[in-house]
């Protein structure tokens, strides 16, 4: 059974930093691309970042480019998202998932989400 354990969410002031992580199990993590999405209240789930199986290729939403960094440690079955210069509009539940690209429909297995709240 594919499972994810997400951690690192919390409350931070605007301009601050936060790192969230996702540990996967039940599948061969090192062979799968991974991505992060987020969903704010009343809004659709949106793409944030993705990383290929080797970690050599990443892609970001324009809204987070230059502020967020996705990385992976396949030895630990972990994908992380370092978030710097956070803004109130980054407030959302953040989800990790297996897949690649920016389309929600390209992802199959999803984590339960971790809340990130940025205060102004």
**What integer value in Å does the Rg equal?**
13 Å
Number of strands: 11
Discrete helix count? 0
Determine the structural class based on helices, strands and strand pairing.
Answer: mainly beta
Q: Work out the oligomeric state of the chains in this entry.
A: single chain
For the largest beta-sheet, the strand count, sense and barrel status come to: 7 strands, mixed
The arrangement of helices and strands along the chain is EEEEEEEEEEE
What shape does the CA trace take? globular
User: Helical amount among residues, as a percent range?
Assistant: under 10%
Task: Give the overall average pLDDT.
Answer: 96
Strand content: over 45%
Distance between the termini: 40 Å
Poorly predicted ranges: none
Task: Give a verbal description of the structure.
This protein is mainly β and 120 residues long. Helix content is 0%, strand content 52%. Strands 2, 4, 5, 6, 9, 10 and 11 form a seven-stranded mixed beta sheet that branches. The protein has a four-stranded antiparallel beta sheet with strand order 1-3-8-7, with no helix packed on it. A hairpin with a 6-residue loop joins strand 5 and strand 6. The protein is globular and about 40 Å long. The model has no long low-confidence stretch (mean pLDDT 96).
């Amino acid at each position: 059974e594919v499972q994810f354990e997400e951690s690192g969410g919390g409350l931070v002031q605007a301009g601050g930093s936060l790192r969230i992580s996702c540990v996967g199990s039940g599948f061969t993590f090192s062979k799968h691309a991974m991505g992060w999405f987020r969903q704010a209240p009343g809004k659709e789930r949106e793409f944030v970042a993705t990383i290929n199986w080797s970690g050599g290729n990443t892609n970001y939403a324009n809204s987070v480019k230059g502020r967020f960094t996705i990385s992976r440690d396949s030895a630990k079955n972990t994908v992380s998202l370092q978030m710097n210069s956070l803004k109130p509009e980054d407030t959302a539940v953040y989800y990790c998932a297996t897949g690649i690209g920016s389309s929600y429909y390209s992802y199959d297995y999803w984590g339960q989400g971790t809340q990130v709240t940025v205060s102004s």
